[in-house]
């Protein structure tokens, strides 16, 4: 809205009872230039005790920003509720000193302030859980005059608390943050949020609950209403948690989240819905990334925040950020990008393989079912000698249901590993129906642990119709190679293990 970048960081010192919120604002739309920095008091005295602000939420509209946070005592005392810090935007943009106003809701529970895309909206909304049957909606007003915070509650379908530790491969468990909401977004008069809940009254395995709320004319008049809500649940034994929800200009909604189980370290997935979908329904989960290793054993904090945004250049493409686990057992942030087929705003239709076969080498084990999900069940092929070295290849066949001329972008995703520590080069090949040969598309290093997730993206400038025949068939080969060693030495045999394959097709408008 303002064409600026904002950064919000907590400052905390338990020795001296310091609790500040540090905010930095870029002076223009280039984040590599000058930043103006503000140090804002967030400590409050509640019941005679000093309290500090934790787990900040951050949101904005055209007139101001609001920072929310849960209040905890430095020494003793009960939970203190949610603090709201309201700051007018104009002084922050010019580098002047702003007037800061703080409010406290003693009954507040992890309120997320909405990012507001509507450039003419004066109210700034926040949302959190009031109970297992109701949401609490907040409106921050008066940024250019007399600031104030209003609150109301309204009913939602009941839910139950999920388990706080979701199983992860290798004996680890990941903190689900229970019912905590992770983000909020306001668009077109509606506010969106999501959190984890129990799968059922008898099963505490986490699943996702999401909400879309019509704020109507509140707080001026009227009452907000729940427009729709829904759940996103994994298959048996799979935990879905850490959801962040977003919306784009053409009415799509999407959620990015974590999936884990006793056999899955942590996958980064998204689901989405189109305006034409039935109320409360999200599509099938699609994988963005998978962890390459196992997290540290025992219960571990996970995520805290996941994020999702609509790309400002087209306002249809989604970008999402979340956590996965590296091969050394540490965590890393993964960023993904996707679009949704909405009949007018882009593609992003997901196609699983319809067949898998051994193209090079010797078949060992596995079926099509083993490449349909990231679950440590592999289609295995052992290498065979060739003039290039030891070589193995797996072919995945796909079928799309629209004309090749409609296709704008093809994205192939695979997960594969080998049993060697080094020297194995992977290459994507696509079958060219015009020349009846396979074209090399991209090479990369195949790893020997975790599930190495690799993508190759082709747009229409690459002549996509040559890779799609009149029946909508595509053939992709993933080849592994250990080259002949220098001086005429022999290459090392290996096992190519393919765990997952998927095709995403973006169609023209």
Task: Describe, in short, the structure shown.
With 509 residues, the protein is mainly beta.
Keyphrases for this structure?
single chain; 509 residues; mainly beta; six-stranded antiparallel beta sheet
Explain what you see:
The protein is an all-beta fold and 509 residues long. Helix content is 1%, strand content 55%. The chain has one helix at residues 89-94; strands at residues 6-13, 18-26, 35-41, 44-46, 49-60, 64-73, 82-88, 101-105, 112-113, 115-116, 124-131, 134-141, 148-155, 165-168, 172-175, 185-187, 190-200, 203-214, 225-232, 239-247, 253-261, 264-273, 286-290, 298-300, 307-310, 318-325, 331-338, 349-351, 355-360, 362-365, 379-382, 384-385, 389-399, 407-418, 425-432, 437-445, 452-459, 473-483, 495-507. Strands 28, 30, 31, 34, 37 and 39 form a six-stranded antiparallel β-sheet that branches. Strands 29, 32, 33, 35, 36 and 38 form a six-stranded antiparallel β-sheet that branches. It is elongated.
